[in-house]
Amino acid sequence: MLILDSNKISENEVTDRAVYDNRRKFMKTAAGIGIVAVSGLPLGQAQAKSNYSTEEKKTDFKDISTYCNFYEFGTGKSDPAQNAHSLMTSPWDVVVEGECANPGKYNLEDIIKQVSLEERIYRFRCVEGWSMVIPWMGFPLAELIKRMEPTSKAKYVYFETLLDRKNMPGVARPVLDWPYAEGLRMDEAMNPLTLMGTGIYGKDLLNQNGAPLRLVVPWKYGFKSIKSIVKIRFTETQPSTSWQKANKNEYGFYSNVNPEVSHPRWSQRRERRIGQFKKIKTQKFNGYAEQVASMYSEMDLKKFF
Ligand SMILES: Nc1nc2c(c(=O)[nH]1)N[C@H]1C(S)=C(S)[C@@H](COP(=O)(O)O)O[C@H]1N2
Ligand SMILES: [Mo]
After folding, report:
1. Looking at CB atoms within 10 Å, which of 10, 194, 213, 290 has the fewest?
2. What is the pLDDT of residues 5-51, one digit of tens each?
3. Residue among 15, 273, 215, 257 at smallest CA distance from 135
4. Where are the alpha helices (DSSP H) in the chain?
5. How confident is the model over 118-140, as pLDDT tens digits?
6. How far apart are CA 199 and CA 212, in angstroms?
7. Is the CB of 131 under 6 A from ligand 1?
């Protein structure tokens, strides 16, 4: 763990260190031997402190890593932390297909070498009514998408989680239509807030949090942030998602955090910040309206929930 309570270390330095550790881990894996020089990497870029980070109190690592939703490992909040150790996350390949110039199978370590990792402290709001503040490590999804060169037909991006019947006890039951599937509109995927998460608190993601690569879309309900991604597909039409298939009246494609639109079975006006006693007000777009509201200015968000 990083020493986060020392007055002598500036927040900037802590962030740099966290970025460095997370990247070095990937580099080690890539080289297969000891510590390698972190060369050929845009470390200067990675060190830039993110303007997008919230100053709110971060949720304890213990809560982030033990209170999880990852239904492939069971539907209980503590099931993923108990069961996800069996997931094999290295080596890890991501298949890119559909409407793009550069489809193919990409090794994650190779992807990591070509993007700028940074720390982003984001609010994270689950549709069930709880929230956290999570210091993610990751890189903007836009960087990856640009490298894949989507065609003019690519209007949406579809994501799929690994489906491993041997190591995922939860998929034995048809709780959701496996593999877990999610999607974003192209402008949402390209928005600078949208991250591909690789770590939390400067460490690689634990399996229960979606190792080794997960989406982080902070203005949408948590279920859009799909874990352990193995497939990315550029599509012309809106992809169907696991939660829409499960119940389209309760879970829409957009799923923007919105206190004005109730879930059919409960209000979304308030949330319980994990680790705090009093409930707090939920903000529209989870407090990221300045960055994202313009993408929806023409839409009726009650209809397109
Ligand atoms: N593959 C997969 N991704 C998933 C889920 C899941 O069950 N399977 N749960 C989603 C939900 S509902 C939430 S709230 C977040 C939880 O992320 P966390 O456990 O890291 O907080 O992951 C999302 N991504
Ligand atoms: Mo969620």
Report:
1. 290
2. 333 444 455 556 667 667 656 554 444 333 333 334 343 434 455 68
3. 15
4. 11-31, 43-46, 61-66, 79-83, 108-113, 141-148, 186-190, 242-246, 289-292
5. 999 999 999 999 999 999 999 99
6. 8
7. no
Q: What is the pLDDT of residue 95?
A: 98
Strands 229-235 and 93-98: parallel
Mutate to test the pocket of ligand 1, among 225, 244, 263 (most ligand atoms within 8 A of CB): 225
Cα–Cα nearest to 86, from 95, 94, 74:
74
Q: Which residue is closest in CA terms to ligand 1's atom 5?
A: 70
Q: Is 180 in the pocket of ligand 1 (CB under 6 A)?
A: yes
Q: Which two tokens stand for residue 85?
A: 């150790």
Index of the ligand 1 atom closest to the CA of residue 161: 1
Gyration radius (Cα) of the chain, Å: 19
Rounded CA separation 53/32 (Å): 33
- pLDDT score recorded for residue 38: 39
pLDDT value of residue 14 = 58
Which atom of ligand 1 lies nearest, measured to the CA of 134? 21
Any atom of ligand 1 within 6 Å of the Cβ of 70: yes
Spans of all domains in the chain: 26-296
The C-alpha atoms of residue 49 and residue 41 are separated, in whole angstroms, by: 17
Instruction: Look up residue 53 and give its two tokens.
Output: 């980070």
Q: Is 216 in the pocket of ligand 1 (CB under 6 A)?
A: no
Ligand 1 and 73: CB distance under 6 A: no
pLDDT tens per residue across span 184-238: 999 999 999 999 999 999 999 999 999 999 999 999 999 999 999 999 999 999 9
Of 6, 173, 156, the closest CA to residue 73 belongs to 173
Q: Which atom of ligand 1 is nearest to the CA of 68?
A: 19
Which ligand has its closest atom nearest to the C-alpha of 217? 1
CATH architecture of 26-296: Alpha-Beta Complex (3.90)
Residue type, 123: R
